Queue: 3 jobs
Job 1
Amino acid sequence: MVDTLGLLLAVVVHPANIQDRDGAKRVFAKAKQLGAWPRLERVWADGGYAGKLIVWVSSFCQWVLEIVKRNDDVKGFKLLPKRWVVERTFSWLSNYRRLSKHYEYWNETGEAMIQVAMIHIMLRRLTKKTAGVGAA
């Protein structure tokens, strides 16, 4: 789960035999448990998360799960608003060799590696913007 800038809010690594919608429940439950975003009202997801998950998120988390769907009339690639944000985050994380495959024995270690990579991304951004301040 990422914010509108693509920065990590919550991460859950689960086995591949769990369907995405069921895995999403784990992510939403973890995000709700953290409780760090009291102003969060709306969550965007792609069409794979439609169905009963919308009602579950509304009742369990009190958030609106909005599905961003692709128009079937459009052929080829079409950039959809809001859907590209999480894909961009995946792209940033794919630059870290340790995340190229799931090498970890425990899922918690995989989650920690994702968090470390995101910390590194955010620190690089902070140092780029502050490097020129005070230099004369």
Job 2
Amino acid sequence: MTLKGRGGAVDEAQFGGESQEAFLSRIRARLRGGGYVADHPNVPAGPWEDEELASYEEKAERFRKALVELGGEVYRTPSREEAFQLVRDLLLRRDVKGVLTSGGDWSQCRAILGQAGIAVESWDEVAFSHGEADRELARADRWGAGLLWADYAVAELGSIAVLSSPRQGRSVSLVPPLMIALIAPQALVERRRTVLRRVAALSKERGIPPSLTLITGPSRSADIENDLSIGVHGPGQVIAILVEGS
């Protein structure tokens, strides 16, 4: 016996001898039991209904645990100045001599790092298009770390979400071997779904598709023999600093 679906005839054998509708109903029931889908397909329900009702402390602790389990580091500071001082100490500890930041005002950070002998270059100052001299390997090798303000941080995953723009290219977070993300209180959300919804709304408002990068711990790559390498397609070290007084 065959059934008619959107793609034409569907053989019952594909669904273990049961009808397509019975098969899908069974899957829906299992998902519904786990709280993942709503009883009515047009009314979203489930754990995301109260996804942002968690307190800041709950989200901060969940984010910390998730990122640490992935091999990252998480710190908390009460102000921007103390965050920049912490960045300085972390860079000195790793003997980092040069930093690439996203665009914007980094004057306070520049002063603090400069006093420690750490050179700071901003994305605003770099011509990184294809064929530009700034794109040469020797220039990129000077950047021991990438420093940026995260657009979002996802507590449930320990992920850092970065939107690309003329003032913040993906290279800031992906080229240097160490990425340090500063996270303002309003940027910390509970679930990835919140980020996707907000980015989709922003895209609709601006009329342009966004380029969103979700960085979930140090980059991991493995070949067919499961030989794991760290830092091949992104940062080998990820540090997040929750700047709670910003």
Job 3
Amino acid sequence: MKVLIRAPQLTDIPAIVRLISELASTAGETSPITADYVARYLTAPSSRVLLAEVDEDVVGVLSYSIRPDLYHAGDCCLIEELIVNHKWRSRGVGRALMAELRLRLAGCKEVSVGVAAQNTAALKFYRRQGLVEEAVLLEKHL
């Protein structure tokens, strides 16, 4: 199996919507994601997306943002979503996305991700990628 990691094209918008919706349904939720929102997201200057493709099928997405950080006096990366289609998990797709992300973070001072405390599989995955627990993320949905 060959995993191709690439930047998205406008024709990939339905696949991105599908993967985000799959993530939400796994958590028993529904995402308000739309094709129009994805199109706007893809053109936002600080937002970036990587896609994982196997046999011309998009099976994974990693969205992240790069932002300046005062404390670190440099750019930092926030992983927003990393989603691998359930049929492709534990087959190297997430690792391939993270490896490509690391190549793109030259000059960044830090990479971080928020993970639900009960998502033990994601916590284990990120720990294997070298991320460690350093902070608590608090949030309030508006």
